[in-house]
Amino acid sequence: xxxxxxxxxxxxxxxxxxxxxxxxxxxxxxxxxxxxxxxxxxxxxxxxxxxxxxxxxxxxxxxxxxxxxxxxxxxxxxxxxxxxxxxxxxxxxxxxxxxxxxxxxxxxxxxxxxxxxxxxxxxxxxxxxxxxxxxxxxxxxxxxxxxxxxxxxx
Amino acid sequence: xxxxxxxxxxxxxxxxxxxxxxxxxxxxxxxxxxxxxxxxxxxxxxxxxxxxxxxxxxxxxxxxxxxxxxxxxxxxxxxxxxxxxxxxxxxxxxxxxxxxxxxxxxxxxxxxxxxxxxxxxxxxxxxxxxxxxxxxxxxxxxxxxxxxxxxxxxxxxxxxxxxxxxxxxxxxxxxxxxxxxxxxxxxxxxxxxxxxxxxxxxxxxxxxxxxxxxxxxxxxxxxxxxxxxxxxxxxx
Lengths: 154, 236
What we know:
The structure holds 2 protein chains of 2 kinds. Chain A has 2 helices and 7 strands. By secondary structure, chain A is α+β, with helices and mostly antiparallel strands. Chain A folds into 2 domains: 1-38; 44-153, no CATH class. In chain A, the strands form 2 sheets. Chain A has a 5-stranded antiparallel β-sheet. Helix content of chain B is 10%, strand content 47%. In chain B, the strands form 2 sheets. In chain B, strands 2, 7, 8, 9, 11, 12, 13 and 14 form an 8-stranded antiparallel β-sheet that branches. In chain B, strands 1-10-3-4-5-6 form a 6-stranded antiparallel β-sheet, with no helix packed on it. The longest helix of chain B is centred in the N-terminal third of the chain and has 23 residues, at 2-24. Chain A binds chain B through residues 44, 46, 49-52, 85-87, 101-104, 115, 117-126, 128-135, 137, 148, 150-154, and chain B through 45-46, 48, 50, 52, 76-79, 85, 87, 89-91, 93, 101-108, 110, 116-118, 123-131, 157-163, 170, 172, 174, 178. Strand 7 of chain A pairs antiparallel with strand 6 (126-131) of chain B.
């Protein structure tokens, strides 16, 4: 019977630990790198952080995010959002994400229903107005309760 | 020590009384105004009754604004609003307040609280909106500069922080329309009110400069430091 000494066991444990740490580091760096280059899920490349949205995934043409469990279905969410803002056209995009109603509250799982924006408006400080032609409107619907939390336009 | 506590208590009481008296002078009607416009359609960029001041080191602006329900014809979809704003150039501003407009859905008039942010945004600012506060309420709207973004506060509660930020050099507090066929907030009977309008610089809050306009269609008054009344002369 071959008996390993404590030094051998310790050395192997340290090697295993080092391999594990290296693998973790590679995964983290890889994930961060992927996130840094990942295109915005929104049309017009809106920065999700500017609308307080995290982990957004465009599910317009695909299945729901694996592991998500919306109690409000996608068709129902689209109807709720359209009714709320009076939209009459089909949405451009459907996004699943995490987002709070306001900064002071915890994030919830939401549907973001994105409609095409129309028209043009003047915006800006006094004497310096610019003509703005918005691209899209997003409406955040709580995917558990169907509540419209807020929205954004860009 | 005990005397100081008494003075502090008395100061708090006095402040409360001033606030109650001031707020009680602010009408809280909810009826839509009645207007009789005789001034055509102009699709103008902006009609404003405004307080504007360049202040080195300004970092915050706030005002308690009454939630008014102006007559809005949508002759110009830009809408009507009463807001506070920090800026430093043509292409940098952060604005917050109530809007009545068809900004979100053309053909559908809605009232919302809208936080708007542009930092050299190439003509594409970002609007974040929430359902409006009830008509007749007095709402504290505040915009705070921060190194990573602007904080937008409603009644002291942070709703959102939006970056990237810029260093502001002026503040603005105003009511605004974009067409002579739309009502400037406030009527001759029920004015639009701004109260406790202040900016923050040099480590403290200061009363904002008086409000005014050169346009003949609108009335204004500055009854208190940082307290403004605004109205449209064609509306009651």
